[in-house]
Amino acid sequence: MKNKICLITGGNSGIGKQAAIQLAQAGFRVIIGVRNLSRGEKALSEIKEISKSSTVELLNVDMSSQQSVVSAAKDLHLRADRLDVLIHNAADFDIARKQAEQSIDGVESIWATNHIGPILLTNSVLDLLKKSDQGRIITIASQGLVMHPKMEVDLDDPEFKHRKFTVPKAYYQSKLAQVMYTYWLSESLKDTAITANCIRVTNVKVDINRYPDISRIMKFAYSLKSRFSISAEEMAKTYTYLATSPELNKVSGKYFNEKNKMVKSSAYSMDKSNIDAVMEMSLKYIG
């Protein structure tokens, strides 16, 4: 994998950081997209030290801001002549949030960060992916969707302007939309050498210190949940598998679990008319 280039958003913590380490160890030039540069610099130093790689760098990007995404894409074009792997790992899931918050563009933050941002970033670097011998786009969903088999993307109100907002509802809706985006993207790119696949992330041990404002009850719940969770390092192995495995050179439009096995998403998410409707609505956000 020497000289391969991967951009992974949200690569300064959790699964993203572990995936960056593994890909750097595999010989990739790894570019980690980070919103906070000071935290990014700290993570960059740690990733380089652990991976023993000098080919790791930062890219400043706030996935909730369309201007930031476009600016980051322009920066990437100045640094790289191609892109081999794009991993949409960054996500907004602030469990302490009580009400919807808006991005700088006036879009509900979870929807903007987890769904609209990845679409815009993909569009903005697609030319670089096409220059790869075999470009790969990897999106990230959640095993939590299994608990919501009847969930649908609200085409009229994806931002919870006229219905009750909760972080889990907003988060799972955004991840459902990303699954559907993956299927749509795979079909759209079928005549290219680019593949698009999605990972269903299982329960992963969380650093509860990242959420200082949550209640003691929630802290206890997360502590209990962690007993039945895998490590970020273990989950990152699936990211690495999808990014590197030659077995997947021509595999596209698939949904993978933490054991690198293909699984099915909900019937709603696989329906072409539903996919087209969600994407028609989603693309309006980026003009």
From TrEMBL:
Keywords: Oxidoreductase. It holds the Pfam family adh_short. It comes from the Bacteria. Gene3D superfamilies: NAD(P)-binding Rossmann-like Domain. The keyword Hydrolase does not apply. Transmembrane segments: none annotated. The keyword Transport does not apply. One of its GO terms (molecular function) is oxidoreductase activity. This is Dehydrogenase.
